[in-house]
Design the sequence.
């Protein structure tokens, strides 16, 4: 059974050494930097060594739809040979500083055709991604603002670099924007978590104090 989720990480960790042995370019992206220019098709593929990126769409109404997060040990975007118009409307942004291995489409095609285990995992990854989108279209809009906050805080905490601990270096304005919540909704949710001593807040950061209790408030897709 596939577990719905919108934070992808370590799906391709077993192939890390293989990726390193193949032709690639090492790239770094800083927090807030776009991985592809807006309007540009995804003409390269990244294996994420460290850091987190966010994939989203800005609607003409002014609302933002967050589609997925991608952390260390996964590949994004998925491998395909066609350029889809929708890709030009999507934005992929570094949520933290990132290090990636960058492959061209032909380079990844060679690996896809030569490595059976890798090609099988790519198919599995697409299955998980589609499953996540289906689950989101059915359920995610009905999650309360508190559940959305808990989901994101938990996923960001467990997917941070080991030396970051449980401190999340994001402002409350950034969190509200990521989740598509009003500042009032976010403040109310964070206050509830502070009262339960699950988190503490400081200028530009949130510290998770009780990760198991935070997880108990998350929805099933986490």
Sequence:
């Amino acid at each position: 059974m596939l577990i719905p989720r919108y934070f992808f990480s370590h799906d391709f960790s077993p192939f890390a050494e293989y990726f390193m042995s193949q032709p690639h370019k090492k790239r770094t992206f800083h927090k807030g930097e776009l991985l592809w220019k807006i309007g540009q098709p995804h003409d390269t593929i990244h294996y994420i060594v460290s850091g987190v990126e966010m994939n989203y769409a800005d609607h003409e109404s002014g609302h933002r739809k967050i589609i997925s997060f991608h952390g260390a040990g996964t590949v994004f975007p998925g491998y395909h040979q066609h350029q889809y118009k929708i890709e030009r409307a999507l934005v992929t942004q570094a949520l933290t500083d990132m290090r990636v291995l960058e492959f061209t489409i032909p380079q990844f095609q060679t690996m896809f055709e030569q490595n059976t285990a890798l090609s099988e995992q790519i198919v599995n990854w697409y299955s998980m991604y589609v499953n996540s989108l289906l689950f989101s279209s059915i359920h995610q809009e009905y999650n309360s603002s508190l559940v959305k906050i808990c989901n994101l805080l938990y996923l960001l905490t467990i997917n941070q670099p080991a030396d970051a601990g449980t401190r999340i270096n994001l402002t409350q304005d950034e969190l509200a924007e990521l989740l598509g919540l009003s500042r009032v909704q976010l403040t109310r949710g964070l206050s509830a978590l502070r009262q339960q001593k699950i988190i503490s807040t400081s200028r530009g950061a949130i510290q998770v104090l009780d990760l198991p209790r935070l997880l108990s408030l998350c929805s099933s897709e986490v």
User: Anything to note?
Assistant: Residues 116-139 form the longest helix (24 residues). The two ends are 14 Å apart (CA to CA). The chain has a mean pLDDT of 86.
